[in-house]
Amino acid sequence: MPHEAIEHFLDEGLIERVIRPLKSGKEASVHLCRANPRTTGETLAALKIYHPLNRRDFRDETLYRDGEYIKERRVRVALEKKTRFGREVQGAIWVSREWESLRKLADVGAPVPRPIEGTEDALLMTFVGDETTAAPRLQEYEPEDRGELEGLWEQVRRAVERMLFHDVVHGDLSSYNVLVWDGQITLIDFPQAVDPKKNRHAQSFLERDVRRIGEWFAHRGLHEPWERIAQDLWTGWMYADLLPADLREELA
Question: Which residue from 48, 132, 208, 241 lies 20 to 30 Å from 4 (Cα-Cα)?
Fold first, then answer.
């Protein structure tokens, strides 16, 4: 791993060393780090380093940028023409979008990693797991029984509901970006998150999120009306009638 990808976090005293790589995906690699507890409040942290621009796929980026106003004309033109500078801007937008989404959702108690520090091409966040084992993705996880399966779905449903209540649609939700640890889920990978107040495609993204995650549960025998669930969530949000279940329970 290039030294320049981690030198900022070392220089800032946020991490002491990289322990080992955790995974490498389409857009980024993730590494387990020994964190500095005095500056981060953590002993372990996950460092997500985005791949170089020539290894990243921006084919659908305009759908996710819908409704995002870019003031500078030269930047808008570069994005439209997909110049080298335009790709650099796209890359920065992805990282910034993930950082802002994580920060917003962590502040309202959504089950996401807490972002600690970010640069133009990397994010440092809390780690889910322990020093020997990273939390498995839902795709790799097998519930012990029907009760656990139903409990996991209820957690996912509440997470999607809470995010929408706070104007965030994940945009790329699937069993590959839900972690499970000690019976609790954590949602990850937010570079494609959108604000439903701005993005005209948000409803279709929400419907796709629910359908995709529902496929994993359906393959294990839990069949729910996924399309209706997504429609009800959207309708509740549209008419300002959406209140996360845990908040309803607090008010009851």
Answer: 132
Our CA dihedral for 53, 76, 71, 61, rounded to 10 degrees, sits at -50
C-alpha–C-alpha distance, residues 96 and 92, integer Å: 6
76 contacts 35 by C-beta, under 8 angstroms: no
Residue 51: CA atoms inside 13 Å, Cβ hemisphere, count? Answer: 13
pLDDT band at 1 (very low <50, low <70, confident <90, very high): very low
Tokens of 125: 């966040």
Cα–Cα dist 54/99, whole Å: 22
Tell me how far apart the alpha carbons of residues 33 and 118 are, in angstroms, rounded to a whole number: 15
Residue type, 205: F
Structure tokens at 192: 């494609």
Rounded CA-CA distance 213/250 in Å is: 27
Question: What are the sequence ranges of the domains in the chain?
Answer: 12-126, 138-251
The answer regarding whether domain 138-251 maps to CATH 1.10.510.10 reads yes
Q: Are 142 and 217 in contact (CB under 8 A)?
A: no
> According to the CATH classification, is domain 12-126 in 3.30.200.20?
yes
Per-residue pLDDT, 63:
75
Two tokens at 145? 């029984």
Whole-angstrom Cα Rg for the chain: 19
User: What is the C-alpha separation between 136 and 114, in angstroms, rounded?
Assistant: 18
Close Cβ partners of 173 (under 8 Å, ≥ 6 residues apart): 160, 187, 208, 209, 210, 212, 213
Distance CA 111, CA 190 (A): 13
Chain center to CA of 205: 14
